[in-house]
Design brief:
Elements: E1 14-15, E2 21-23, H1 25-35, H2 40-43, H3 45-51, H4 61-66, H5 68-75, E3 81-92, E4 101-115, E5 118-129, E6 135-147
């Protein structure tokens, strides 16, 4: 992203919020199929309405976590680097994400260090759901930004 300062200069700064992202039942069903996790609280709206403590189907926590990637790409200054997921140091799902909910992300650049071939950043991610006070995901994402060549 041109015009943005180098990532190292953003330590302590917040990136975001991102645009709102819809988490439809179709997206949840596709994630369930891709991960072989068809638990009824995710994929059976009728049963979930009757039996779930949430009153509706909810997104998998790991779906919510994985959606940090497109949100992060929206706000992360890559310059000429290639970003790769290096890991997650800590993750929690404080609140459910009902099907049809909208989420957006905020990321605080916690640290940046040099690694062979580029930089490694730790970002404190918060995924918030529209209309909810509690976040649906908080995590420490570890991202490597590798320089071309």
């Amino acid at each position: 992203m041109s015009g943005q300062p180098p990532l190292r200069d953003l330590v302590g700064s917040e990136l975001g919020p991102t645009s709102w992202l819809d988490v439809s039942q179709v997206r949840i069903d596709a994630f369930a199929a891709a991960t072989d996790d068809p638990q009824w609280i995710h994929v059976d709206p009728e049963r979930a309405a009757r039996e779930s403590p949430f009153g509706a189907t909810v997104a998998h926590g790991f779906l919510t976590l994985s959606l940090c990637v497109p949100m992060l790409y929206e706000v992360l200054p890559l310059g000429g680097s290639t970003a790769i997921n290096y890991g997650v140091d800590r993750v929690r799902f404080p609140a459910p994400l009902p099907a049809g909910g909208r989420i957006r992300g905020r990321f605080v650049v916690a640290s940046v260090e040099d690694v062979p071939g580029g930089e490694q950043a730790v970002l404190a991610a918060t995924v918030e759901r529209e209309g909810s006070e509690k976040p649906v995901c908080v995590a420490e994402l570890v991202v490597r930004l590798l320089s071309a060549g």
